[in-house]
């Protein structure tokens, strides 16, 4: 084993053994030979899973053991738990350690643990890998989860450029493309391209069910269109409740716009206003094609 | 070439050379060797395309030539054109010919051409193959488009069982599974699993665009979730304006339910009511999983 020339972190601690945390230890093992990998979890069973497969050099339930002398700490638990973990591990942090995370919302994270760590003289930069799956847990982890993915790096402007470059290089070595932005812009963007689409997929699935139609008939007739449009709402309701409420401030205005727009299309249909309906659909097609 | 033992129709005329019509002549050629295939189009260019590739035995712009002595006539033009075509080809129809179509709505079709043909002593049974693509035109046609697809057969109760069995057998030979239902139920089901999802996909794409967010940032950050959720709204606005207005009666009540449900989830988010939001998402997940 040798330290990769451009490996910015000789040691990485991942706190949280879910799909993302598990994939991260696998990806580091594969893409950064020589890096020491530590995995922390609250519960024994995912650590056992990781141990049996040799996914990390150290699997531990002790936060102190997990972070001591480590240069990059990645929070991969639900964002609501960060502050509690931070107050527990901060005393073990090296001065030059960088703390990041993989959470889906960033305003709350910077206001919470980001601000707490800064006050303690530590560096926090947010990461949000735009990768995942409707599946959960370390048993669905994959070393290639981040290949080709975009990772948003969020900074509040106070971080030094060297730390940001190191973190960018870390994600790039895992095959991702990193883009830096401020936490507020991040939250507005993910509301538009992830959180609201999740709610709309859920709404579509819910709307399909009605007492007038046999469920079996819906099942027989549903083609790939329905199943693709609603796919994301198979994600964990618990996890998504967390994500959506954390980003409610950015999501609610989008939902209000969407309700108004839905009222409008309902009216166009009621009036059979073909000219404007076609324009409405053409604008949607253009919007999609300019994004995808 | 030999007549397949179970081939219920020695000759098939397809009126309309789009994606579905084109795929249909290709599928009949492949799955029913020996059947005579005629293709009618209003315009010369798709017929030229079909001729060059030998897709049909006769490519014609004459409705009389297309339907004379043919036992199965399939309307594959927009549903709004059926009546005009019907009044033109009815005088050339054999008494034992069956007329069907491939349109996405059925109440209007039975009330229109179905009722017209019945008055003239002819048989009409609706077909709706739940197959397609956001691509259009004979140049995207595929002989396997109907393999594994469900085809709804719509009858108003006056058709004879033998004709229905023959049409069912026709679709099954192309690899599809046929389900018979009445036109009203058909329209309610497709509203729920196709037309409303199309509108919701369009709404999701439209909602993502806002003056506050750079389009390039949305494009960089959008992952498969967004692109899958909105995929169907890449379909032709012109074609979908036709489909949606034809089925407005079934779609509008679904949209009203959906607006009310969206108001509810907005309120849950504003109140950060995690318990009920999680339940709302869990119901959506169950709804999807019971259909897909």
Outline of this structure?
Two copies of one chain form a homodimer. With 292 residues, chain A is α/β, with parallel strands linked by helices. Chain A has helices at 19-31, 44-52, 63-67, 82-89, 107-119, 161-173, 183-208, 215-221, 224-230, 237-246, 248-270, 274-291, and strands at 11-15, 36-40, 58-60, 72-75, 98-101, 123-124, 126-129, 150-154, 177-181.
How would you portray this structure in words?
The structure is a homodimer of 292-residue chains. Chain A is of the alpha/beta class and 292 residues long. Helices cover 52% and strands 13% of the residues of chain A. Chain A has two domains: 11-181, NAD(P)-binding Rossmann-like Domain (Rossmann fold), CATH 3.40.50.720; 187-291, 6-phosphogluconate dehydrogenase C-terminal like domain (6-phosphogluconate dehydrogenase C-terminal fold). In chain A, the strands form two sheets. Chain A has a six-stranded parallel beta sheet with strand order 3-2-1-4-5-6. In chain A, helix 5 links the parallel strand 5 (98-101) and strand 6. In chain A, helix 4 (82-89) packs parallel to helix 5 (107-119) and helix 7 (183-208) crosses helix 11. The longest helix of chain A is centred in the last third of the chain and has 26 residues, at 183-208. Chain A is elongated. The relative contact order of chain A is 0.11. Chains A and B meet through helix 7, helix 8, helix 9, helix 10 and helix 11 of A and helix 7, helix 8, helix 9, helix 10 and helix 11 of B.
